[in-house]
Design brief:
- The chain has eight helices and three strands.
- The chain is mainly alpha-helical.
- It has a domain of about 70 residues: Arc Repressor Mutant, subunit A, CATH 1.10.10.
- α3 crosses α4.
- The longest helix is centred in the last third of the chain and has 23 residues.
Length: about 160
């Protein structure tokens, strides 16, 4: 018997009714989708010499410069220790720079360098194209429904975490 994620991967899922959906497996299906999405994105980023983790850090800095490593890690959703090697790699590639905060010299702020900022125009299309691939065969209504349901699922789980 094939699993829901096996069928999805094979493109065999046209529609799922409530009775077809297993009680257990949502997390596995979401993880499979996330892994497939990220593998495609990683391949596209690798063509530019950038890892997925480096892209995540740069993406946050493109949105807001001057973040501490702790804040950068929090926004990405990883431990600070995991971020340390990525930041070191970005520094070696001269894609970011660090400087002390003017108000508190103990705080080190991270910024994109001019070279790191310029990468946005080459890397952002990788993410856009990966989204387009993921949306293949989904019409506008399907997309809205997908986002609405995923937001609802996320909200349900966050409520438990906030208790």
């Amino acid at each position: 018997m094939s699993t829901l994620s096996d069928k999805a991967a094979a493109g065999g899922l046209k529609s799922i009714t409530v009775s077809d959906a297993p009680e257990v497996g949502l997390g596995m299906l979401l993880r499979d989708a996330d892994n497939a999405f990220n593998r495609v994105l990683r391949r596209k980023l690798a063509a530019h010499g950038i890892s997925f983790s480096e892209f995540q850090h740069l993406r946050q800095l493109w949105d807001e410069q001057g973040l501490t490593q702790v804040e950068l890690s929090r926004r990405i959703g990883i431990e600070r220790a995991s971020s340390t090697s990525v930041i070191a790699s970005l520094l070696r590639k001269k894609l970011i720079r660090r400087s002390s905060a003017p108000s508190d010299k103990r705080k080190v702020l991270v910024y994109t360098s001019a070279r790191g900022a310029a990468l946005r125009d080459r890397l952002w299309p990788c993410a856009i194209e990966t989204n387009k691939i993921a949306y293949t065969a989904l019409n506008q209504e399907d997309r809205r429904t997908l986002f609405r349901l995923l937001h609802r699922v996320t909200g349900n789980l966050n409520k438990v975490l906030d208790e």
